[in-house]
Write a structure and sequence with these properties.
Length: 205
């Protein structure tokens, strides 16, 4: 138990002091908890998240937690039960439209933290949020969102057998979310999340 506690606090220290990616504009932000059966994976924090000290703390978070509320999960409950990981833990800076997408070297640099969290928590379910996060779980990254959002998948990740249920990025810039097909896929995905046994148990649904 003591080892587990120190392993977890070492992880947080390494994560919070990491400065491996020179192009990142912000410092690491985390949504880690010491014990979790579910992990979510976002893309990277936005410009406001460092100030709030947690992922999905601003407008995209409002949409994301609005989705979870539809299936009976409040934001506070989600944050207390789900280890909120991300492909990259620092704000990447702005692009012409929206936030800059982390580059492959940054994704690789940051993957050690996700790997630790998967090996440490051995989650039963992972919810990747947005294409970059979904890509980390797909063998073939040439797919349309409607081909995966609404589905339930299984695979081994870092030696752990997991189920995974993808969601699109909740950013207001993601127009797909507002199309008929997007809305239907999101609703299907939320139902799949709600009905997953670990979600039923963790949130007493
Ligand atoms: S994005 Fe990840 S690997 Fe890169 S500096 Fe931030 S915490 Fe470190």
């Amino acid at each position: 138990m003591k080892n587990r506690k120190s392993e977890y606090s070492n992880h947080l220290n390494r994560l919070l002091s990491c400065r491996k990616c020179p192009q990142m504009q912000g410092n690491p932000v985390h949504g880690c908890i010491p014990s979790a059966r579910v992990i979510s994976i976002g893309q990277a924090p936005g410009i406001h998240e460092e100030r709030f000290g947690k992922p999905f703390a601003y407008t995209a978070g409002k949409t994301l937690f609005g989705w979870f509320k539809r299936i009976g999960i409040e934001e506070e409950a989600f944050r207390s039960k789900v280890n909120m990981s991300a492909v990259c833990r620092c704000f990447p800076g702005k692009a012409k439209s929206g936030d800059r997408k982390p580059n492959p070297a940054e994704v690789k640099n940051c993957s050690e933290f996700l790997e630790f969290e998967v090996r440490f928590h051995k989650p039963e379910l992972i919810v990747p949020i947005g294409k970059l996060a979904i890509d980390q779980l797909m063998e073939n990254t040439k797919y349309k969102l409607e081909d995966v959002v609404g589905g339930v998948f299984s695979r081994e990740l870092y030696g752990v057998l997991i189920d995974w249920i993808p969601l699109p990025h909740p950013s207001g810039l993601n127009v797909w979310n507002h199309t008929d097909i997007g809305k239907a896929c999101i609703q299907r995905a939320l139902e799949k999340i709600k009905n997953h046994p670990v979600i039923q148990e963790e949130f007493s649904l």
